[in-house]
Fold:
Amino acid sequence: MTQSTHTVSGDFDLTMDELRVVARYVVRHAEDVLSVFEQAVPDDPRPRAAIDAAWAFINGAKRTKLQRVTSLDAHRAARSAPSEAARLAARSAGDAASAAYLHPIAQAGQVGHVLRACASAARIGELEAGGDPAIGDALLERSRRRATPVLIDVLCRYPLATATGGSSRVARLMSTLDHSLRPAADGPPGPTAANGADVCGRERTS
Structure:
């Protein structure tokens, strides 16, 4: 894979290599559930095209409008899908392609670009098991094991994703996974990116 030291700057920096780590994490989850969409809508190639675009970036290609366009197309496919599971599967493929454009802005909303596909895959597992939350919990544990130190380091540059009782099941699953991945998740709330330290309790060096 072609290595890149190019950085994207915002509230903090992200390197292309870090973005590829994030994209790889997301696309693995999207691939796990792609068949759910393709079985429901066998003649729609848009989610698969988004996954292919994600892999092109992961394997060293520059990020281009290919990732943007295929991500948008996959999300359009999600909106017209016939079931919740199929919609989540298509959206996960779109998230995989758009991971190349994760913004280095310290906003909790960015966490969705890292973890929403994981939570969606867990929700799909629940739906396929008749709504069994134990399946979702098991799939979140798989996602936790898949997370590399680099992925967790990137995640810790963003504020925690939060979910309330009225949030969607996917949002609650994502919040649960987010808390479980962070080294300081079991401690008291720490400082936020706004005051010079990240939410994992470490001082920023940039």
The helical segments are 16-40, 46-58, 65-79, 84-98, 111-128, 133-146, 149-155, 169-181. The longest strand covers residues 7-9. The first helix runs from residue 16 to 40. The radius of gyration is 17 Å.
